[in-house]
Design a protein that fits this description.
This protein is of the alpha/beta class. The protein is built from eleven helices and twelve strands.
Length: 313
């Protein structure tokens, strides 16, 4: 992974739902880069705007301001039909709920191959059948499962079908929206290991969306922490866990369960209160406090964070 090799870039993007006095800004002036070959995590509570960011990248949700570029080319807003088809192939999504994201009336072969039918007109049945069999095999399912319906599978198998549906398009970039949150704990590790294996074998890049920081530590190279539509902290995974600065990040990390009953009993759970910030005189900005580590803060807060980093070092 080269930090000079930016695959996807979001610049000052905002997403607003509704109009007039009913307008609600779900994403507020968010900027970040995703490098080729990395897993970039977006973490936050329910309603923080993390899924909306993923949907904006997929061009499911239009931007109200800002722009998204892929390999240096703008893909947000009005784009050509040719570029639209190219992005449909190169950027795929794995959805959160494997029960709701598959068409119950369709057989697995059609579900997995639907993207091919949309972008490759006139493909032969033999080609589709072979591609579906290969995609199912890649995610650890038997090719003969193609003739079955989704209700015949477990949650973990259904999510693998969803992954196969994304892989059949030979994508470069995958938005994984909480891909394991609806699965049993026993199956989660299998799906995470599968995603890691596919990343290595195919050179994939992921945007991994989750509310679970313990999972993010396992799979992500860098993590952006989102609160109420804003990125409050962004750093590589080790730095974020070792030196969390923003109070919201510290609160999220304090909620991670510790697999030791004695330690868990003594653990102090932090509660984030937005009123702890005094932004009446100086508004916060998103600044780099150490190499690769960004935080949303104003001047006095930055001084406090710098002192904390100096003590930790």
């Amino acid at each position: 992974m080269s930090k000079t090799d930016v695959l996807l870039s979001a610049r000052d993007i905002s997403v607003t739902f509704g109009k007039g006095h009913k307008a609600f800004q779900a994403v507020k002036h968010v900027s970040f880069d995703i490098y080729k070959g990395e897993t970039f995590g977006v973490v936050g509570e329910s309603g923080s705007g993390k899924t909306t960011i993923g949907r904006a990248i997929m061009r499911i949700q239009p931007l109200s301001s800002g722009e998204i570029c892929y390999n240096g080319e703008r893909i947000s807003g009005s784009i050509s039909r040719e570029l639209d088809q190219e992005m449909t192939r190169k950027i795929q999504m794995i959805f959160q709920d494997p029960m709701a994201s598959l068409n119950e009336r369709a057989k697995v072969e059609y579900i997995v191959a639907e993207g091919l039918y949309n972008v490759s007109h006139g493909v032969s049945h033999e080609y589709v059948h072979e591609a579906v069999s290969r995609a199912l095999s890649d995610v650890g399912l038997l090719p003969e499962f193609a003739s079955r319906f989704p209700h015949e599978f477990s949650g973990g198998q259904r999510q693998r079908i969803g992954i196969a549906r994304a892989l059949i398009m030979q994508p470069e970039f995958i938005v994984a929206d909480e891909p394991i949150s609806a699965l049993d704990v026993s199956i989660r590790a299998q799906v995470l290991n599968l995603l890691q294996k596919l990343k290595r074998e195919r050179g994939l890049t992921y945007l991994f969306i989750s509310h679970d920081l313990s999972v993010m530590r396992f799979i992500c190279d860098r993590i952006a922490v989102v609160h109420l539509g804003e990125i409050v902290e962004l750093a590589d995974t080790d730095t974020l866990y070792r030196h969390p600065l923003h109070p919201y990040t510290r609160a999220l990390l304090s909620a991670i369960p510790v697999p030791n009953p004695e330690v868990e009993k003594k653990k102090k759970l932090l509660v984030y209160d937005p009123s702890m910030h005094d932004y009446s005189k100086e508004k916060p900005t998103f600044v780099q406090i150490e190499p690769g580590h960004y935080v949303l803060a104003n001047g006095p807060e930055l001084e406090t964070y710098r002192e904390r980093l100096a003590k930790q070092d």
